[in-house]
Design a protein that fits this description.
The structure is a homodimer.
Chain A lengths: L7 E8 L3 E3 L19 H8 L6 H8 L3 E5 H4 L23 E5 L7 E2 L5 E5 L3 H12 L4 E5 L1 H9 L5 E7 L7 E2 L9 E8 L4 E7 L2
Parallel strand pairs in A: 1-7, 1-8, 3-4, 3-7, 4-6
Antiparallel strand pairs in A: 2-9, 5-6, 8-11, 10-11
Chain lengths: ~210, ~210
């Protein structure tokens, strides 16, 4: 009998002052005032401009068997789904797995190319996690963000592992991981410095 | 002619959510609600319980040729110096160098054993830095904290290097490095993971 179950992993790129996005997020600037082009260029250059150096961490992010994200991370459309918005990631999203999008507005599942299907969950974070776990089987569930969604899962004690990718800029304002999360004890599992990012993995103990 | 001048270095131990002390700091609990005994035990165990593993970083902190700290870090005495308070560190403090304490209340210099002398600076952070640089000669000036003092120097653009020692707990509230500091570009110079702390050094570029 195989009783192994996967972990619930958070993956988030943050600034040295803990922000995952700046103020004034819009469709044109999904990361708001992010110290760059508003598309998170300075936040994510470790992934896009230094992919080889950070291959292990990128592969780990892409290895999730199911993904959870907030509606703000999925896209800028608010309220009813009155536009055919299928995410920021084009026809063949990088997830290649079921993605559970937290929303207040019901919508039919949206299959995409390459194995990604967007499922829309209207009954809260615990339901989304239950569905994601069922879809992931023995694999890991990755809570991809944004920070508001991550903080809800952290506050509810539902996260096993927190993988932060800390980039050398500060924003001074915006959306921050850990905001509103009560004190937690962590265990530093691994940490690795690449040239433009610091990868750290914490186990959430209590 | 030797034109070399030392650097202005910040050294600060912070939680994974960026706090250097919790709420409700008092004389009995100088670090407030710090997730431990109020004396920062959980914040500073990397220094005191794992000294050998972190010898290089402790030595580096102690190598400063002059130190700057805020009055709240120096002690709990407020207003006029109506008590003979000579810091938290006993008769032979670990600095072995001149220490410039930011305060609004004048006081004569206080020599201690082992080469430490406390100087009290009433005319602001730039004056304290000028005096510390003069005292340090070619050596480095260390801004020891707390976060409120560090943030003033960061906001004024007076810091060359930021050495953060990130410990695996979160506090959820308190005094935080970077609060009120405008966006900064940093360069990640070095990073090293010990078993219970992550040491990262940033150069402050702009």
């Amino acid at each position: 009998m195989n009783t192994r179950t996967g972990k619930v992993i958070v993956n988030q790129t943050i600034t040295a002052d803990g922000y995952s996005a700046g103020l004034d997020q819009t469709e044109e600037h999904p990361f708001g005032d992010d110290g760059g082009d508003g598309w998170g260029s300075s936040l994510h250059s470790w992934m896009f401009d230094a992919g080889e150096e950070n291959r292990a961490e990128v592969d780990q992010i892409n290895a999730a068997s199911a993904v959870i994200m907030g509606r703000n991370m999925f896209g800028p459309v608010r309220g009813e789904w009155d536009r055919q918005w299928n995410g920021w990631w084009g026809d063949n999203p990088p997830f290649h797995a079921p993605v559970f999008v937290l929303t207040n507005h019901a919508r039919e599942p949206q299959p995409m190319e390459g194995g990604t299907t967007y499922h829309f969950v209207t009954d809260g974070i615990e339901s989304a996690l239950k569905q994601a776990r069922a879809a992931a089987g023995d694999g890991d569930v990755s809570i991809h963000g944004g920070a508001t969604t991550i903080n809800q899962y952290l506050a509810a004690g539902l996260v096993d592992e927190l993988r932060l990718h800390i980039v050398p800029i500060t924003l001074g304002a915006g959306v921050r991981v850990f905001d509103g999360v009560p004190p937690r004890k962590l265990e530093q599992v691994t940490a690795r410095a690449a040239s433009t990012v610091l990868h750290v993995t914490y186990r959430v103990l209590a």
